[in-house]
Each structure stands twice: as structure tokens, then as C-alpha cells.
């Protein structure tokens, strides 16, 4: 089921999803998501939700089983008290296919070569990614990758006022 959520308030969007799940719908594609909260919250069925846009707070909270794929960024509270299901969120390290000129990085980030452990890690994710999106795994893995890491556990801590 494809839903264009442009300008839609989060309550009717989530009701539409819950009602469709109750009627047996198993797959959703949500377009033009722009901060709508609670998507996937409390769902107990094995459904797939693909989100095109940036979901709001508490994506997948209290869910038991769904698979959520976000094709953009996401706000805070992702998987809050999630019991089962899948939301893929990566943090603290960014892997980029290609070369990154350190000139383009802030002083809080370091640019590194991948080691064998990194290659194995991204290989496992890229295998699934290539299967999902129809890319050739060997071609993707044949490119050069760069690893970006923060230089401290709070790289931007001095930028915020508390």
C-alpha cells in the first residue's frame, strides 16, 4: 500500500496504517514523510514499512515484529522500547564508498582506511543491501571505501549550550 503523506498529520497517517494492517496489508511505502511521529508504534504484525522522507520521534516504539526501512534521516527516539522487529540504525562510524578529502571534514572527524574487520562488517550489510535493491554485490564491494570516525565520544559537545 502506497501512501503520500505530504502535509498529513501523524494521527490520520498512523490510523490509516493500523487500519490497513488490521485488514491484512503486509507492505507499505510511505512517501513525503516530513516529521510524522510514531510510525510503526505498537504494531505486532510482521509487516514491512518503507519510509521515503524523515520520520519524527518514536519511530517503531513498542513494536513487535515489523521491519522498517528509512530512506533518509530520522529524528530521536527510534526503536524506543521496541520488543521485536527490525530498524537498521548505524552510528559512531560512517562508511563511504569512494575517497573523502580530509579538507571537507571538520576537526572533530577523522578519515581512515578500512581494516579487515571493517570490510567484513560492511560486506555483511552490503550483501543484504544489494539483494534488497538489485545491485551486484561484487561490483559494489570492488570500490574503495573510506571510514569516518569521531575523535571523541562527544565530538560536537562544545557546540551546544546547556
Notes on the protein architecture:
By secondary structure, the protein is of the alpha/beta class. The chain folds into 2 domains: 2-87; 94-159, no CATH class. The protein is built from 3 helices and 8 strands. The strands form 2 sheets. It has a 5-stranded parallel beta sheet, with no helix packed on it. The longest helix is centred in the C-terminal third of the chain and has 18 residues, at 116-133. The mean pLDDT is 88.
Q: Return the average pLDDT rounded to an integer.
A: 88
Domain count: 2
What series of H and E elements makes up the topology? EHEEEEEEHHE
Biggest sheet descriptor = 5 strands, parallel
How far apart, in Å, are the first and last alpha carbons?
43 Å
In the sheet with the most strands, the strands line up as 1-2-3-4-5
State the total count of DSSP E strands: 8
Shape: elongated
Give the secondary structure arrangement, pairings included:
Layout: E1 2-4, H1 10-22, E2 27-34, E3 48-54, E4 64-70, E5 84-87, E6 94-97, E7 109-113, H2 116-133, H3 137-141, E8 145-150
Parallel strand pairs: 1-2, 2-3, 3-4, 4-5
Antiparallel strand pairs: 6-8, 7-8
Could you write a compact summary of the structure shown?
The protein has 3 helices and 8 strands. The chain has helices spanning 10-22, 116-133, 137-141; strands spanning 2-4, 27-34, 48-54, 64-70, 84-87, 94-97, 109-113, 145-150.
Amino acid at each position: 500500500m502506497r501512501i503520500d503523506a505530504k502535509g498529513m498529520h501523524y494521527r490520520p497517517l498512523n490510523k490509516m496504517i493500523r487500519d490497513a494492517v488490521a485488514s491484512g496489508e503486509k507492505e507499505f511505502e510511505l512517501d513525503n514523510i516530513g516529521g510524522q511521529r510514531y510510525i510503526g508504534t505498537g504494531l505486532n504484525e510482521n509487516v514491512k514499512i518503507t519510509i521515503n522522507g524523515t520520520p519524527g520521534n518514536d519511530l517503531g516504539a513498542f513494536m513487535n515484529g515489523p521491519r522498517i526501512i528509512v530512506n533518509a534521516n530520522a529524528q530521536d527516539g527510534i526503536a524506543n522500547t521496541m520488543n521485536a522487529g527490525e530498524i537498521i540504525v548505524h552510528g559512531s562510524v560512517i562508511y563511504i564508498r569512494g575517497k573523502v578529502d580530509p579538507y571537507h571534514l571538520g576537526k572533530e572527524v577523522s578519515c581512515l582506511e578500512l581494516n579487515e574487520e571493517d570490510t567484513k562488517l560492511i560486506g555483511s550489510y552490503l550483501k543484504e543491501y544489494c539483494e534488497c535493491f538489485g545491485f551486484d554485490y561484487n561490483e559494489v564491494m570492488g570500490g574503495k571505501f573510506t571510514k569516518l570516525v569521531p575523535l571523541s565520544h562527544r565530538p560536537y559537545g562544545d557546540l551546544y549550550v546547556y
